[in-house]
Fold this sequence. Notes:
Chain A has six helices and 20 strands.
Amino acid sequence: MSRNLLPRGIAVFAALLFSSTGLYAQDNDSSTLESLQSTVQKAAAKVADSVVLVYVDRDKSSDRPLSDMEKRRLGLLGRRPSEGYYKRPSGPVTGVVVDDKGTILTSGFNLSGKIKKVWVVCANGKKRAAKILGRDPNLDICALKVEDHSGLKAPELGNSKKIVPGQFAVLVSRSEGCKDANITFGIVSAVNRERKNAFQVQCRMNYGNVGGAVIDIHGRLLGISARLSNRTVIGQNSGVGFAAPLHQIKKVYSTIVAGKNVPKAKTAFMGIQGSRELQKGAKGVKIIKVLPNTGAAKAGMKDGDVIKIFNGVEVNDFMTLAEEIRKLAVGNKILVTVERDGWQKDITIILGARPEGQ
Amino acid sequence: MTKNTILSFSLALGFSLLLTPAARAQDKTTEKLPEKVSKLQKAIIKAVKHVSPCFVVIGGGSGVVISADGYMLTNHHVAGSRPIGEDWRIKLPSGKIYSATMVGTDPQGDISLLKIKLKKGQSLQYVPFGNSDKCRVGQWVIALGNPWGFAKDSTPTVTLGLISASNRYRGNYGDAIQTDTPINAGNSGGPLIDIKGRLVGINGSITTRHGVKVNSGAGYAISVNQIKRFLPTLKKGGVVSHAALNGMRVGNTNIGGNGALISRVSKGTTAGTAGFKNGDVVVAVAKMPVKNSARYYGAISTFPAGATVSVTVKRGDELVTLKVKLDKSGRANAFPRRRTPTPTPSSKGYFGAMVVRGDKGVVIRSVVASSPAAKAKLKAGDIIRSIDGQTVSRPREFNSLLGKKKPGDTIRLLIERSGGEKEFTVKLGTHP
């Protein structure tokens, strides 16, 4: 018997050896993909223990219902999704352990509403009670604390300031009943979005995995996935997703860990509905409507006025005007030149704050 | 030691030699990425860096610069609401705002060509054209776009995916590239590039579910090869039409997808005069292989009206190539088996805008460039309250009243726009 086995054994050994050197597997494309596949798996495995399930018991009536205008905006051009589309689904969400003291970060939406109880289930299945600390509505993150943080460790941190569009990104999250962490994969779509409060990734993001860890291909934490709610137009799994970058989180970390909320940053708002039409011949932005109780209203601007110069810049269209306002802050005093019935008027306006929902 | 143990020992040794370098280096603190992965990531970042400066924000969507002197492409459904000769304000990633003039537009092919107004001596970075017929299903592609307006701060939103299918006939797109690259509302008109940074398509539509315009895994781009065929016609200016081959019926054969069967060839028509015969099986249109009738119609529609193409048919055992000067397509969608509504016969007055049901009644969804509705200065978003004094609250009501009018008739529409109401007069035309 042994006489027959030896040649066969050598043949098997030789076959294995040859396959490793690729003598009959000369497919460069698939080896790159296989390499990519295992790299993604390894990266996710590095942070898996730091990604946890977050259970939220909230007063269901405290989930703010959508207004008609919000429904219209979400419905986009007259189509109406079913009512169920707007409801927050039940089930646990995801959070990320970020230090060795039991601090967990998740998205603000995950912990919005009147919360009765929060608890966390970690990678090893252990259930731990959690307490809500502080929030930052600009980054859309919220901090939790688990008293019993034995065995919980933070992932390796990456440099979120060096993120470039096109680099790989992996979103690692948890779902109920799954031993392994969940992964969605893609590239970084853009940086410095939402007034630098987010970077954009195409990893499919939904109500279950938001709050999860966005890591680079090396497995280092870049940010916490956020900015997804039942009110955002991006919808679930659209391929447009946002994450709060680590370097921005670091700036507010001590505040939210101390249990304090970061106030929402106000953006400058003039208070007009401008025409997007290009005025033929005569340049400027025509005001369709001046909104009540705004900087524009208080300064005496009227419907039909044509804004010619804004803060020293000639504005020929709405896009330019919006750009100029974007550069300013609440409380800035601006000189605006408008044309009314053929007369040019100079008006001083104090920019207010953009109200909710605008 | 028996021979068996020697054998198992050598096998074990062999296995240990086969351990990948990455696995063996697991304990090292400074791990390097596998070279291939690092190369792939660098290639993607490089392609993105090269094409980003050519990206354009226009209206609610995207566009791309295709020549140094400022020609740019976008979808017709993004820019076509403004007639030829009118300007759009556009923005490039540099942050600079320019004016771009509508040069030519293709409603059926959903492509608009604009020229960006540049200063003397100024030139722009542009994206080179690729070859969409050389693209393989499964290859990487990258989309640059402006989903939900997030790119208005000047930088495009970049997404990566695969080509899921090519040469698709979907809706009006006769030669669409189907991709799983996440594309959403706002990506329309933006470039789809290959990993070398060459344009392979212009993104235009997606499959959606549950009435929500959110990507569900299938997006469609107009192929660059179709665009290349239309570019000269678009540059000449105006609204361009697609080709059709009138005078014969082309259906699917029963011989296993090896072509499209010709029947009902009529004498004196383009098909009859060109020499097509009943029973011929189309196997290629201008060297593009044709496996079924959908591909035949799709291939024909990639040409502008009046183009001369060679069509190869199998006649018995022979291959015959016929040269045909193509007709003008009379429909927005020339593929006969599609379940789209049949076009209005030319005896009815032509309005030129699509209406849908909105919260307040009948809303104009889009206006065809240079149509009677466009000439009357109607716009997308306008709410039609009444037609000739009769209140309408549903598109069906509006369409049936409109359907009674003839070309040349004038209709009075009470329009609500931005909170104000005004009466508009539209002189109906003849269906193109």
